[in-house]
Specification:
The protein is mainly α. The protein has a single domain, classed as Methane Monooxygenase Hydroxylase, Chain G, domain 1 (Up-down Bundle). The chain has six helices and no strands.
Amino acid sequence: MLRKIFSFRNKCFFRYIDELAIHLQAMGSMFRDAMAGGPHTLDAHIMKMEEKERAVSRLVSELRQEVGQDLMSPFDREDMHYLSSDLKHTAGDLLHITRQVRSYMLFDIPPVTHTITGQYITAIEKLCTILYGLRDTGGLLRMTGVCTEIKQLLYHCDEQLDKAIADMVNDGREGIALIKIMDHFTALDRLLERTHDTVNVCESIIVKYS
C-alpha cells in the first residue's frame, strides 16, 4: 500500500516537471519569435507569454505544495525547491526582456540579441531534454553530457554579450539610448546566469541519484 502511495506521488512530481518543461520550451519559442517579429507582433507575443508565465507560476506552487505533503519524494526537497524556483524565474526573465523591448521601444534590436536568442533556444531545448529525462533514474548519468553542452552554449552567449557591451561603449551611444541598451544587455545576462544556475541544479540531481 505504501509503495502505491509513494509511486503515485512520484508520478505526480514528474508530471509537474514535464509540464514545466513544456511551458518553458513554448516560452522560449515565443521569445525567439518576439525578438524576430518586429514591433507590430510584440503585444500578441507578450499576451501569450504572460499566459505561459502564469501557468509556470501555478505549477511551481502546486509542486511545492505536493512536496510539502509528501513523506517520500524522488529527489531531495532542497533540489526540487531550487529547480522549480529557477524554472519560474527563467520564465519571468523571458517575459521581462520581451516587455522591456516594448516599453523601451527597442525596435532596432541589436544583432547580438538575435544571435544569442538562437543559441539560447537550443540551450532551452536541451534543458527540457534533461527535465523530461529525470524520471528515468537509470539513465540519468547520460544527461551529464547534455549539461556540458548547455554550459558551452551559455558560455559562448556570455562571450558574445561581453563583446557587444565592450563595442557599445565605443560606438558613440550616449544618454538614454545607452542606458536602454545597457539595461537590455543586463537583462539578457541575468537570463543566461539563471539558466546556468538551473543546469547546475540538474547536474547536482544527476550526480546524487545516478
